[in-house]
Design goal:
This protein is α/β, with parallel strands linked by helices. It has one domain: Vaccinia Virus protein VP39 (Rossmann fold, 3-Layer(aba) Sandwich), CATH 3.40.50. The chain is 31% helix and 25% strand. The chain is built from six helices and seven strands; from the N terminus they run H-H-E-H-E-H-E-E-H-E-H-E-E. It has a seven-stranded mixed β-sheet with strand order 3-2-1-4-5-7-6, with helices on both faces. The chain starts with a helix and ends with a strand. The relative contact order is 0.15.
């Protein structure tokens, strides 16, 4: 994929930026950002984290992120979430608007769980299928809140569905859906 200026600008102006702003307030310790894209969100997560590793399957996006946002606290790695390195553990793993692009969503979630310390948390977001906003031809699937919660509960013991401000989800039409899992 090529990442032109317009594509990056659309990303900055998207709800993903707002989600990363909220998630950055709660993460700490070591953080993995799965599907880090061009790295802006990963960079935001470093505010309160000890370090952040952005994992991205697209080498063009990872390369851009590495040139633009790598520093002492932020690094980027080429990786497929369904085949993550074994033995690397994090306090938090984030996956912001990525899961809807992954064919093997259950395998990806199992892989993420292995990346977490026992007390670690997984924060994930996705567009709401019931909402009329943010539909994309690039999504493998989209989820409604009950489906999303069910998928996450098939892997994690605790799942809290929220809105992008990290407040409890009050409507099945809220978009996007965010979840904190443990």
């Amino acid at each position: 994929m090529s990442y032109n200026l317009w594509g990056r600008l659309r990303y900055v102006l998207s709800p993903q930026f707002d989600i990363y702003e909220q998630v950055a307030k709660v993460v700490s310790g070591g953080v993995a950002d799965v599907g880090s894209g061009t790295g802006l969100g990963t960079h935001l997560l470093a505010r309160n984290a000890d370090y952040v590793v952005g994992y991205e399957i697209d080498d063009g996006a990872r390369s851009f992120a590495e040139r633009t946002f790598s520093n002492g606290k932020v690094n980027f790695s080429l990786a497929d979430v369904t085949k993550m390195p074994v033995g690397v553990k994090y306090n938090f793993v984030t996956m912001i608007d990525v899961i809807e692009h992954i064919k093997d969503d259950y395998i990806a979630l199992e892989s993420v769980k292995k990346m977490l310390f026992t007390s670690g948390k997984f924060i994930v977001s996705t567009p709401n299928r019931l909402s009329r906003y943010r539909k994309s031809e690039y999504h493998v699937r989209e989820y409604a809140p009950p489906e999303f919660g069910g998928l996450l509960r098939s892997v994690f013991d605790t799942v809290d569905l929220m809105d992008f401000e990290m407040k409890p989800l009050e409507s099945v039409y809220t978009n996007p859906i965010l979840a904190v899992c443990q």
